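Figure S4 source data
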Amino acid sequence: MTPRAAGPGPWREFRRIIQGSGFIFACRIAGAGLTLLVQILLARWMGAAELGIYVLAFSWCVLLGTLSTLGFSPAAMRFVNLALARGEPGYIKAFVGYGLRSIGIASILLAGTGALLTWVLLDHSAANRLPLFIALGVVPFFAVLHFICAVANGYARFALGFLPTSVLRPLVFCGLVTLWWSFGPGLRAPIAMGLQASAILIVLTLTAIYFRGFIRGQGDRQISPAEPRTWIRTGLSLLIAAIFTGYFPEIVIILSGTLLPSDELAVLHVSFRIAMLVSFGLFAIDAFTAPEVARLYAAGDRTSLQTVVNHTTRLRFVASLIAVSAFVVLGRRVLGLFGDTFVAGYPLLLILSAGQLVQGSVGPVVRLMSVSGHQDRCLVVFAVALATLIALIALLAPRYGATGVAVAASLDVMLWTFWMRRLTIRHLELRLRIW
């Protein structure tokens, strides 16, 4: 991916980013389509109440699995490109080996602690007890799968980086759900969570076999005592931003789990998932430009970096505006696919989409702060955003239900988005303009 600061005009660079993001966007949209399809099947075959139980259990799996990576997944983009710029492939192999060992230990400890708390705190007759146990059991495998894919993205090997998590896992899960419904005795939340766990294990096995053959050819290198401390310190700083930007719906669902009935939680979840289609496009654009942005910043090429940032910001805004406009027109019909109960989520969809539109208009601020080494400055932003989200949900959910949660989520997105934009302009001296 060679930067093109000079050329026949800005449209060529803009078109290059669109074309380069196409594969990633296609993966994300295909995965989102498969996820929505299986959500429709689950909603119609299990009902909103059982879907709410499954959604809460899987949200815990996703959140704890992400925490278990200790930030090695978001840090992979930075350290892989640092090693490539230095011509040290052995550095990457050392980073991957240390990361896998650390993730394995952390994920087992977190999953074990969660299982113990579930056993002690939840009544044996609680409907969500068994799905939670299954979700916790698959946490280590979820964490390893996402770390492997993050390393592949650092190499700009987008097929290995996005196909397993974005396409293969929901595809396998959809197939397993359909087979169970066709031949099984019935579909309930524990069964759905078990099928999701099976899909994760299948995809991880196939991905790990391919990745092992790829990484073994990268050469060997000894780890210096200071390097693990740098990896962990950087990773933990990036982890909070990664969780907030990548798994925000899961955080909202978990915080709302004890405040909303399971059927209302299911409607909120479906509305959130549709609104998050905007973020898939934004993620595709950011993921394609991230390796180039990291290299340009490391090389000190400010002119080329500003060019890439300009076009990325404009493309993000246009993509999010088109998507939100589609939600306004087609939102009720899409929600109706899940069942008549879910059409009530149309106002939630519009509220949540407003936050996504704002996020799309400010540019790739989180990526820029992360690859430039300013990740520590993000800690205060997301710590305040998390505290604000908890307070807003606690204040609004009891009185306004799912609508209050949607308002809280959108306001929180706007808070940290504008704050991150201000920090990016101040510390990186880059312009972030739509036009």
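Figure S5 source data
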Amino acid sequence: MTPATRAARFSVAPMMDWTDRHCRYFHRQLTRRSLLYTEMVTAPAVIHGDRERLLGFSPEEHPLALQLGGSDPAQLAEAVRIACGFGYDEINLNVGCPSDRVQSGAFGACLMRDPALVATCVSAMADASHQAGGPEITVKCRIGVDDQVPAVALRDFLRIVSDAGVARFTIHARMAWLQGLSPKENRTVPPLDYALVHEVRRENPALHISLNGGIDTPEAAAGHLGDGFAGVMIGRAAYHDPWTMLSGVDERVFGAVPRGTTPRDVIAAMVEYVERTGAPVKTVGRHMLGLFAGQPGAKIWRRYLAEHMHLADAGPHTLLDAADAMTRRPVPA
């Protein structure tokens, strides 16, 4: 079992504009064992863009998966060859994003309609990764799109794509409605169908299937793992309430010895990170706004950061000042 497969028992979803390298470094202070994902990067961007900006990461982020978007097998294979030089632990193909940009490029959730093309893409990606000594190729998908019958579409998709060599899937247990719903609505409006994903998991015991969608408490994650899923993937809940969702994962899910880390320890680590990398505090601090969610002083922490991290004199001290503000003033009514 690869490090990424072991870590996939609990993963943080790829989220556009959120899971950049600063966010991932922050999350890594909370969980050392979980699998982290990059934002989706398109294959043409990898081929033609600033590769260090798009693909670079800190060694501390391992185990780390790169998510690629695309539908051209040759482009995806070239992007994989390039990405292999960066040392990712997994490369994932996006077959679930419903955004207008993705639809216009004929990839993401649109590909649920063409599992044969997905099979061709992942086969080309796997060949390129093997030749470069790279990682496993995986797929993140929906249960179907638009007028598809999920019970049929998902089964056909898994059969055809797994026959092409993919053994690990993350399934977002919602349909994607590409007409009539925004990308935001597609994350909440189509009803979840955990039962269907449970059925296909039982029907495909050789596949490693992780469940995604609507998992917003540690108890819910533990329940799905207890029901037999090989993994769970957490999205927005991990971003908005990272301490609750991530700080106990290593002990609960992976059996690690408790490290005794506190939120203040996390802040100290991020201060060191900003000092060492020179990253603007506003680009780091925005990912930390939810660190104290649900805890006394959370409003003060969030308000202080939001008001001060964009100022000209903001720096590593701003994170410390925000923590100090929690002890100096009462929580606003």
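Strands lie at 10-12, 35-42, 64-69, 90-95, 136-141, 144-145, 168-172, 175-176, 208-212, 231-234. The mean pLDDT is 93.
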